[in-house]
Amino acid sequence: MNYRMIARVLGLILLCTAALMLLPLTAGLCFGENVLNFVITISIGAAAGFLLTRIKPRTTALFARDGFVIVGLGWIMISLLGALPFVISGSIPNYIDAVFETVSGFTTTGATVVTDIEGMPRGDLFWRSFTHWIGGMGVLVFIMAVLPMSGEHSMHIMRAEVPGPTVGKLVPRARKTASILYLIYVALTAIETVMLMCGGMSFYDALLHAFATAGTGGFSTRAASIGAFHSLYIEMVTATFMLIFAVNFNLYFLLLIGRLRDVVKNEELHWYLGIVGLAVLGIALGIREMYGGVGTALRHAYFNVATIISTTGFGTEDFNLWPEYCKWILVLLMFVGACAGSTGGGLKVSRVAMLFKTARSEIKQMIRPRSVAPVQMDGRRAEAGAVRAVSVFFLLFVFLLLAFTFAVSFDGYDLATNFTATLSCLSNIGPGLSLVGPTGNFSIFSYPSKILLSFAMLLGRLEIYPILVLFSRHTWKN
To answer: Residues 70, 140: contact at Cβ < 8 Å?
Structure first.
């Protein structure tokens, strides 16, 4: 374990987070607000980060275990630091509530405890949405994109932070890969901002909603979310970009270099589009009578399927009022989530596809014991280790879901509230059903439950292992 290098990288994370807070500070100044909360937080983060970066490592090499520790501790640190502006300004006076909101932001969950969103200072609202954008691609991926780190060993950090079963190298160097990913990320965010402004949003609203869409987070500047704008154009632009940001970013790189055939043949993309299409059709058929026609039903079905499968969590309608089977389609989408290598959460489409194929293979072998029925993805045979890893991850996910649901049930709320609140946090979605539906929020939970749900959000965003390894004694042995 390279403790000195770990400390140095953690220092860089704090310095980077402090530097990024200059943007909401500037936004607050533009609106004539008191920005002392950001000045104090930036000073604390910069001082702590500077002290940690003064530690000189004997070697810059980082390995898999180091990567997990850096990512796990790094995300906890930025969440604790990022909560301070809300507490100091008084917009979220309780520190546990502020940490919950900040964890929800960085993990791109979008679950909120704020009841008066429009009453928050503009600088605080900027920071709240900006945490989605930072967390979407990953703060460590950002650091690798702009700063030299530890050569080829930095790929261990990227693999520990980027969501999905695997992280591929777009180019040989990890820093170059990170830079390419962020350029695509920035370009798509800018395009969405302009398109939302064309629909009548102010630059401020458009930028903050683009931040939240890009990170598939879901924080809005309005209590009624996207529904507050009463615009079909804004809904369609937002829904389409939610689906775009939930696609593996490697595919966009392949498009840029002209490898369209590889994109078209991508099996996870086929599954993703197929699931979206079937879900939209199924829900539209179920709600068409509620909305008096197929057109309006398709509008609401498309938006809400996009917001759930992408794990963004924006709202336009209260789907608590929809037929039961429509709500359970949404719950299934909460499990599935976005594509691997995207900014979205959930199990990931590729894992779900592999689980289905593994089950089908087992059934075939039960019927014909002498036959060979390998699991294949993208026309290639999946290695036994990959299949095992997906199965173990699924079991861990389900176990944690049940354990956290049981733990928060002591608050006394109904099963739908407890289960979907936990699923929403573990899959980084935002809204659930019943009391945590589109018109509710997470302020109803006790402080112990909020701490547990914050932990669930971190587990979900970092795909379980970087947080769990922090509690293993084997991690800290040399």
So the answer is: yes
DSSP 57: P
CA 52, chain centre distance (Å): 28
Amino acid at 91: S
Indicate yes or no: pTM above 0.70: yes
- The Cα 301–Cα 287 span in angstroms is 8
Residue 243 tokens read as 């689906």
Closest to 463 (Cα-Cα) out of 102, 107, 106, 6:
107
* Cα–Cα distance for residue pair 160/167, rounded to 1 Å: 9
Cα–Cα distance measured from residue 182 to residue 205, given in angstroms and rounded to the nearest whole number = 22
CB count within 10 Å of CB 249 equals 23
50-103: per-residue pLDDT in tens? 999 999 888 777 777 888 899 999 999 999 999 999 999 999 999 999 999 999
* Cβ partners under 8 Å of residue 421, min gap 6: 111, 408, 432, 436, 442, 445, 453
Residues 461-470: pLDDT tens digits?
999 988 998 9
CA distances from 364 to 89, 380, 383 (A): 61, 19, 18
Q: What is 277-313 written as a DSSP string?
A: HHHHHHHHHHHTTTTTSHHHHHHHHHHHHHHHHTT--
Integer Cα distance of 235 and 231 in angstroms? 6
Look-up: residue for tokens 């810059």?
60
Q: Which residue has the tokens 């458009």?
A: 206
SS3 440: coil
Helix, strand or coil for residue 241? helix
Nearest Cα to Cα of residue 312 among 248, 238, 252: 238
Helices (H), 215-266: 232-245, 249-256, 260-264
